[in-house]
Specification:
Length: 412
């Protein structure tokens, strides 16, 4: 699906940003005006235009808040947060210590925090204990009653952020009676930008402390904890669920069986051979040549070096081989919804591999191009995604839990 830009990556990221309009994360007119000032494949004009829009909308929110217009301010802060996130997306040449990346990322977080303080439902910033430090998070609650409710733990992907969680799942969840606990893990959002934590393949070491924290909260029903994996999060939560039995269900948006497979499908055979043989000098030269020609490859490699904490493209691609559920899929026993995008540009065919490999009950659902939901993570069709996801959760987690409690009450 081409959207406003011929370049595949510019098109996809613009669609991703615009798709959050369903939950107040964008305004179509603002997107169109912003895109009109961006030259195709020009990453500098991308940053400049999106940042200018974000600054303008954030200033508008500040004025509305000062005037006492809470709803208008909240809506504008939400859009500004999303636009700031979008603006720094392609600035990945040397992001570690980059003052521009730091400033824009901070602005995205600050705008969202300002919006969260104006929500009609409780939103609590949380710090989740993790290996001698903490992971930043938000706990989105349906209401202030303290009643234990089914709760979704939102897990970022390769490039998403804690603040994006509201548009990706939390807004839809709250409407349906589900709490959401969202966090930035190693390699993600503020955990990467502020603490320098990088990705790790053994994601159970991340999710288990998050569940430990969740179980300290009386608002979270301990038998109705659901993991939601966004993009590469589809691998991360599947891996974690293979080890932690406290999970009632997992939702993979989309299913990811093998991270390296995304590269293997795109790289020529001789280059894969060089990478395997650790002929890095030759491999890196070819990878950088390919990156100069392709926005998608350039961004993927540069982002990977950052989030994995390495310097060599060949080394980074080898590291992705550790991100597979091939050896643990059979240990995933909880009910699993595996979403598949008709036209997934990154993990085509992998949801089917996941469905065939896991040990528990699996539901594989493909959302199609014909309904506008065929792109990776179904960007541009968030409402359609959430209908499929939450209807399944209602039937799989919520209804059985209610029936079980009714039986126990009857026996008592």
């Amino acid at each position: 699906m081409k959207f406003l830009f011929a370049d595949e990556s510019f098109s996809f990221e613009t669609l991703r940003t615009t798709g959050f309009a369903s939950y107040g994360g964008a305004e179509l007119g603002e997107v169109l005006a912003t895109a009109a000032a961006i030259k195709n494949k020009d990453e500098s004009s991308w940053l400049t235009s999106w940042r200018a829009t974000a600054d303008r909308v954030n200033d508008l929110a500040e004025r509305q808040l000062a005037a006492g217009h809470r709803v208008s301010a909240r809506e504008a802060f939400l859009r500004a947060s999303n636009y700031y996130r979008t603006s720094e997306f392609f600035r990945r040449e040397s992001p570690t210590g980059d003052p521009v990346v730091k400033a824009i990322s901070s602005a995205s977080r600050d705008s969202f925090a300002a919006a969260a303080r104006l929500f009609d439902t409780p939103v609590e910033p949380v710090a989740i204990p993790y290996e001698g430090t903490t992971l930043p998070g938000y706990l989105f609650l349906v209401d202030a009653s303290g009643e234990p409710r089914p709760t979704i733990i939102y897990n970022n992907g390769y490039d998403s952020t804690l603040e994006e969680s509201y548009f990706a799942v939390a807004a839809a969840a709250l409407r349906r009676g589900y709490n959401v606990l969202a966090f930035d893990g190693p390699g993600q959002g503020a955990a990467l930008r502020e603490q320098g934590l990088v990705f790790r393949p053994d994601w159970e070491a991340v999710i288990s402390p998050v569940i430990d924290f969740a179980l300290t909260r009386s608002e979270i029903a301990p038998d109705q904890i659901i993991l939601f994996g966004y993009s590469l999060g589809g691998y991360l939560v599947a891996r974690a669920a293979a080890f932690d039995r406290r999970v009632a269900a997992i939702v993979l948006n989309d299913g990811v069986f093998d991270f390296y497979g995304a590269f293997a499908a795109a790289l020529p055979g001789f280059l894969k051979k060089w990478i395997d043989e650790k002929n890095d000098r030759a491999a890196n030269r070819v990878i950088r040549m390919l990156a100069r020609r392709s926005t998608r490859i350039r961004w993927a490699i540069n982002n990977g070096l950052w989030v994995m904490g390495v310097e060599s493209p060949a080394q980074y691609i080898r590291m992705t081989k550790d991100y597979t559920i091939a050896d643990v899929a059979g240990s995933i026993t909880c009910p699993t919804l595996i979403l598949d995008a008709d036209n997934d540009a990154f993990f085509k065919g992998q949801p089917q591999q996941v469905a065939a490999a896991i040990g528990g009950p699996a539901t594989l659902t493909t959302l199609s191009d014909s309904e506008g939901a065929g792109e990776h993570c179904h960007v541009g069709a968030m409402s359609r995604l959430h209908q499929e996801m939450f209807d399944w959760l209602d039937d799989t987690v919520l209804t059985p839990a209610l029936e079980s409690r009714a039986r126990l009450s009857h026996r008592a």
